[in-house]
Write a structure and sequence with these properties.
single chain, 160 residues, mainly alpha, globular
Amino acid sequence: MVDATRRTTHFKLHWSKLIHMSSILRAFPFLTLAHAIVVLRVVTAILFLAHAVVRIYNGTIPGFAEFLAARGWPMALLIVWSITVAEIASGVLLIAGRCVRWGVAALLFIDVMGIVIIHAKLGWFVGEHGTGGVEYSLALAVSLLTIAAADREKNSTYSH
């Protein structure tokens, strides 16, 4: 009889934990949609900023320029510096929440060109199953489109 009571108590404890977990999941992710968009905007900006800053810090701008020049791109060093400056400026704009769609447009252009010039030839996966594929760049593109759509929605003067 003690064993049956213990099982019933044990079952009640599990059931109460599930009910508690259900109430937690109803509140998850503990952010409003507006806050989640801000998080997405800032994190996406940081990813692009990091790309540019690391390119400068590691001194890989000349190597990237050589890569483009070898594929027939004229003024490759100027292009790479333009990409780098655009990533920094656009990242700062996105973090500040200013001229968001202009910043997104620049970053989306860079991202799509990266897919076309570099990543598409390398397949889908970035890591584990492949190297340098489009999966990460595509995730960035979707993030950028979401950020731009949210900004348009927030700043629109027309009604739906």
